[in-house]
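Example 3.2
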Amino acid sequence: MTASLLRTTLALLFLGLFGVLETTISCRNEEGDAVDWFTFYKLPKRQDEESRKTGLEYLYLDSTTRSWKKSKQLMNSTRSVLGRTLEQLYEAYASKNNNTAYLMYNDAVPKSVNYSRRYGHSKGLLLWNRFQGFWLIHSIPQFPPIPEEGYDYPPTGRRNGQTGICVTFKYNQYEAIDSQLLICNPNIYSCSIPAMFRQELIHMPQLCARSSSSENPCPAPGHTSASSLSINTNLTIFLLINSRHFCTWMAQQLKTHLLTETWQRKRQELPSNCSLPYHVYNVKAIKISGQSYFSSYQDHAKWCISQKGTKNRWTCIGDLNRSPYQAFRSGGFICTQNQHIYQAFQGLVLYYENCH
């Protein structure tokens, strides 16, 4: 083999290895393996049970499994599903990799007592490179920590139940995400978007720049929806603005009666709604296994599912409450007809409220 041919071969091998490394950003399971998607349900802290209940236990389901399993890890562990997935963010930050971008947002910023209702009631994280990345939408206040601090789980997320969903996307899907994230009006508290992404992605760099200035957030013009794809699973993303009626609007868009589970704070809940062709019912209690259950008053989770027996079997997981006090807040849901996700969430419903 000539020296020239050897150099060419080595260069091709390097580029091939570089490409493999670049495609590794993904949602991760508890073993650290890449998965197309996962969803979790962090269980509330139960004051009436044995002391080992820490408010850090969770249920887990991903694209390789068929039903909930209770994790052996606690949510504050780096070996939890969130710890494994977010490890990619903290490693990219430590390596000062200019080929990777990230954007973190939460209306309740980590380690801050300030809370602004000017922004959407949105909570999430995006991490990506030129090949692919993931989008995590969740309900956890003050999470996750900024890259400089590494992974942890906040005390504010322990008392109540919490949910989230992570989806892996090819880079060519990020233009759709870019335009929809602007409408969510997120409160961005940490971000880095290198120049190489700014030709295709217009709004996320603007949101990132806004996060370090005193500029007012963009006005929210009204609810909207969009479609996108994960790597292997069709998912429909609904990002909407008027949260006061978001479940009513979603029910009509999805053409299905919805059972909704969002934080049922006393004197702040909306009643079930049967005034339109497709109805919305409040879930009132969640069952875990056997006799174990908890009330919606203990649940900060945000999700809804098609009523059992209806033709369209939708599950939506996001970051908005069904509350009159969030009438002008924005946020988003990832909705899917995946049968395993639907069956997992349907199995959690102990009972729900009919219309009065």
